[in-house]
Every structure is written in C-alpha cells, then in structure tokens.
Amino acid sequence: MVIQHNMQSENGNGIFKRVNRDKRRGTERLSTGYRINRAADDAAGLAISEKLRTQIRGLSKAGDNIQNGISLLQTADGAMGEISNVIHRMRELCVQGANDTNAEADRDAIQQELNQMSQCIDDILEHTEFNTMKILKLGDAYIDYIETVVGKLPPNVKMPDNLLQIGPLPSFPAGISYASAVVDFSAITSAADVQALVDTGFYTTCCTCDNKYNIRFVDNGSEPSKNVGRNPVFDVNIHGMTNGADVVKAIVQSVKTNHFTRFMADPADGGKLIVYDYRPGQTPNEPLDRGILKPELIRTETVITDPGNMQIQVGPNARQLVSLNLPTFSSAILGVDMLNVNNNMVANHSLEMVDEALSMLSLERANIGALQNRLEHAYEYAMSAEENQQAAESRIRDTDMADEMVAFSAKDIIAQVAQSMIAQSNSRPEAILTLLR
C-alpha cells in the first residue's frame, strides 16, 4: 500500500475528464444541431460539406435566375401576342381594302387605320420593358459592308443599252405601267460558261424607291442565302449548272425581295431573265439613261439586325448558361410599316406582306415558347439537384439527435459512475491509518 500515488483515483479521474469532454461535445452538437462544428470534428467531412454548400447555395440562386428569365420571356411573349393581334387587324384591313367596291374615301379611312396600327406596333415594342430593358429592341443595327465583286458579267451575258422600258407586261392587265429590263443568259451553253459567272453579278434598282437588290453568283454547293438589309445581296448558287436557262431558274427561285422589284423567266426563252418593277399608279423615278440594271455588284452598306442575346446563369458553376436570343422587331423589320390599299393590286401585295409578318412573328413566338419550356425544365433540375445535395450535406454535417441523445445519456451515466468510483478510491488510503495505530 502506498500513500504518494492513488492510482485508482487517478484512473477514475482520467475517465471522468474524458467523459466530461465527450459530454461537452455532445452538448454542443445537441445545442447547435451540427455534428461538425470545427474542422477537428471531421476534417474530411468538413471539406466535402463545404463543397456541397457552395453547390447548394449556387443552385438556389440559379433557380432565382431561371425564374427571372422565365418572367422575361413571358413579358416578351405577351407583347408579341398583342402585336400578333394588331397584325391580324391589319390583315383584315388589307382584305377589306382589296375590294373594289370601296370608294376612294373608304380606302383613305382604311389606310389611316393601317398607319395607326403600324405605329401601334412600334409603340408596343418601345414600351415593352423588363427591369428597364427594352427586351424586344436589344439587338444592334450595324452596317455590314459588302465589297465590290471583282469583274463584271462575262461578255456572253447580254444586257441592252437601254435598260429601262416602260409599258404593259403581257402577264398583267393591259394599261398597267411597269419598268423592266432583260438579261440574256441564252449564250451560256456549257458548264465552263456557268463557271465564268462565279463571283460576278449585277444589281437592280427599285424605280419607285432607293432600294437596290444585288445578285451574286456562287459555286459552293449550299443553299441560296440572303444578306438582309435595305440593299441586300442574294447569293445564287449555280453549282452543277450547264446552261443559261438553269441560271435564270436559279435566280427566280433564289431572289425573293418581298418588294415591288420582281424576277421572271421569259416565257418564250428560258435563258432570258426579265427584271421588272411593278408598282401600279406610281411613276418610275429612274431616268431612261440610267436604267434599272447594272452589270456589276456595288459596294453596299447593309443594315443588319443582330438579335438581342441574353445569358441566363442556370447552374452553380461558371459557364453554365442558357442563351436567350430575343428577336429585335419594328414595324419596318416586320415589313408592315408601308402597307398600302390604294387599289386592288397593292392591297393584295400588302396582304402578302402581312402574311409574311405573321409567319415571322409566329416563328419567333414559337422560339420564345421553346426557350421558356427549356428554362422551366432547367428550373426543375436545379431544384431537384439542390434538394439532393442538401440531403447529402445534411447527412455529413447535421447531428442525428436521437443517436446523440443516446450517447449523451450513456456518457452522463459513466460520468456519475466515475465520480462515485473516485470517491471510493479516495477513501481507501485511510486504511493505512489503521496500520499506524
């Protein structure tokens, strides 16, 4: 028996301290609800948990972004729906104006409403905003320079000296004026002759306005293309062609100006292209010595409308984006800014323009709807991912209250037992006093 060291008491005290330390940690976990309150509690678990937290918080904010994007698209679609209603009304007016039972005063009244409807479209577009942004006028209009094509038309393509002729066109009612010219491709009789046309072209001028339509011959095996704008360049693909009639047919099929300048093959000779400006009731403004054709391409300044591009951050990490290509509209872009119902012919042409505007608008609305559906699916995914990652993070970091309470109760019992054992071990050295008596 020794009196300097009471090892039983020391052992009991050590156990008591460890149990109390565990109780303190258990109390902390129970009071905070977290299993990991400091890195020392679970170093690896903390690292994993922090990464999950960044994803969870990012997904939550991405969900807000997506909902804002959906709201923007709904705003745009609402405005476009109202524009569609306006254009439907314009179509009704064009149908009404095409009827020759209308007196001049009637057509004037119809024309006034058409003009107001055109202005109404621009007003809607101007005032459609989301967070102060004009969402249907986000695109930029910029100038695209089309360089002059080197070389003129080859000699075997004949263009008359007097390029402007005034008179009735046989396929239209007699007495209606037009301005026309003929480009003769009939001397082109081989593939080599066709190849000589590549990278050359010509342009036509509108006799009642300032528009120019450039035609450029290309050999790239692709579909015909159009560089849009006030003075567009039409690329006519002549790949694989062997004669002038094929070239004329390609021009007629490829060049659609949606204007009064038109193209047709000569019924008597398929190798001749008739270019005419048909605008009843208006006098051509081109002088006879200038004509409506030029045997070369000009350097044009083409106004191109770039759709407004917005990026929606749909994920928690960099470059997780969805692009919203919002259309840029105006009554001019839709082609309904200068509708005319002065007579049956121009009213029918206006009707065609309105139908094209409706088709364009419907296509863009379909695109808006598809984008909205895409964002809605992205939102559902983001919310599902957030929920699942939150569950994973909770399993790592949160306290299981039942397990922790069971462990705390056990530690509390052990602490009480240890305290009792310390008291008993401290009384044992008193037996030494018995030996000393």
Full CATH superfamily name of the largest domain: f41 fragment of flagellin, N-terminal domain
The CATH architecture of the largest domain would be Up-down Bundle
Strand order of the largest sheet: 8-9-7-6-12
The CATH topology annotation of the largest domain reads as: f41 fragment of flagellin, N-terminal domain
| Overall residue-averaged pLDDT value | 79
User: What is the C-level CATH assignment of the largest domain?
Assistant: Mainly Alpha
For the sheet with most strands, the description reads: 5 strands, mixed
Question: Terminal Cα separation, in Å?
Answer: 16 Å
Shape: elongated
Instruction: Give the H and E element order.
Output: HHHEEEEEHEEEEHEEEEEEHHHH
Low-confidence stretches: 140-152, 160-178, 280-292, 296-306
What is the compact description of this entry?
With 437 residues, the protein is α+β, with helices and mostly antiparallel strands. It is 49% helix and 17% strand.
Structural notes for this entry:
The protein has 437 residues and is α+β, with helices and mostly antiparallel strands. The chain has three domains: 1-33 and 400-437; 55-139 and 309-387, f41 fragment of flagellin, N-terminal domain (Up-down Bundle), CATH 1.20.1330; 144-305, no CATH class. 49% of the residues lie in helices and 17% in strands. It contains nine helices and 15 strands. The chain has helices spanning 7-32, 43-97, 104-127, 191-195, 244-254, 331-334, 344-397, 401-427, 431-436; strands at residues 129-130, 133-134, 140-146, 165-166, 179-184, 201-205, 212-218, 225-227, 233-237, 261-266, 269-277, 293-294, 300-306, 308-313, 321-326. The strands form five sheets. The chain has a five-stranded mixed β-sheet with strand order 8-9-7-6-12, covered by helices on one side. It has a four-stranded antiparallel β-sheet with strand order 4-5-11-10. Strands 1-2 form a two-stranded antiparallel ribbon. α1 (7-32) runs antiparallel to α8, α2 (43-97) packs antiparallel against α3 and α2 (43-97) packs antiparallel against α7. The relative contact order is 0.18.
